[in-house]
């Protein structure tokens, strides 16, 4: 049994409701769905967050997310969907194997998005400069 629950799911050591698999990608229903059809898409290689994936792997993962999301929203009759990624404990990541949530959305489903704040003075300009320096 692997230390990582998602690696164990990929290996078939832990059961899941699989919706898709190819040589690099695995996808299954979230066991605690926010809405019906809530699906996880994961790379088969064990990497903690999306920043640990190669650019190629990340492209492949996102292409799979697009393909699977199209099927999920048709299957459950959703009007839209959120694609959500928690990176790091502080961001709510519980399972330390990179994964992408596809969350189908329905009118009045009550799911709240984040509350926005405000920048003060030159704060936004300074943050922009810092970001650009790291690019
Ligand atoms: P995160 O907070 O982004 O790390 O989310 C991890 C997600 O994995 C949660 O939404 C869990 O409900 C889901 N999860 C954990 N264990 C399983 C499992 N055995 N099968 C399916 N989904 C799982
Ligand atoms: Zn893993």
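Sequence proposed for the structure above (135 residues):
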């Amino acid at each position: 049994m692997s230390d990582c629950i998602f690696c164990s799911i990929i290996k078939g050591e832990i059961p899941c409701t699989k919706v898709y698999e190819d040589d690099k990608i695995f996808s299954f229903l979230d066991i605690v769905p926010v809405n019906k059809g809530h699906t996880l898409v994961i790379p088969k290689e064990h990497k903690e967050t999306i920043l640990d994936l190669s650019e190629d792997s990340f492209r492949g993962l996102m292409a799979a997310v697009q393909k699977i999301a199209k099927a999920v929203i048709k299957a459950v009759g959703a009007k839209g969907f959120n694609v959500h990624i928690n990176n790091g404990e502080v961001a709510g990541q519980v399972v330390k194997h990179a994964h992408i949530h596809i969350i189908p959305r329905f009118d009045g489903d009550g799911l709240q998005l984040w509350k926005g704040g405000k920048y003060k003075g030159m704060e936004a300009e300074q943050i922009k400069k810092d970001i650009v320096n790291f690019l």
